[in-house]
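Bench notes, afternoon.
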Amino acid sequence: MLKERIVAADIIKQYENPIGELVQVACRFSSDINLLNGSKKINAKSIMGIMAFQLCKGMEVDIEASGEDETDAVKAMSDFLKCQR
């Protein structure tokens, strides 16, 4: 399992459809990917989970991935949430 803590950028302003695009990024990987903040833990491949997570600028998010492509998955999710394309 690989874990990285990041501070989310303003994804609402950066992306046309931030929730859908974030789920698409997560779904490119076979690893299980979760986003955590405080007591919230959601599956990053779930559009309903991402909506309920209420990502916002400045939010500290732990990205957790487990699987054969976990390194690439965490990097891609981190880049997306920090608006680093």
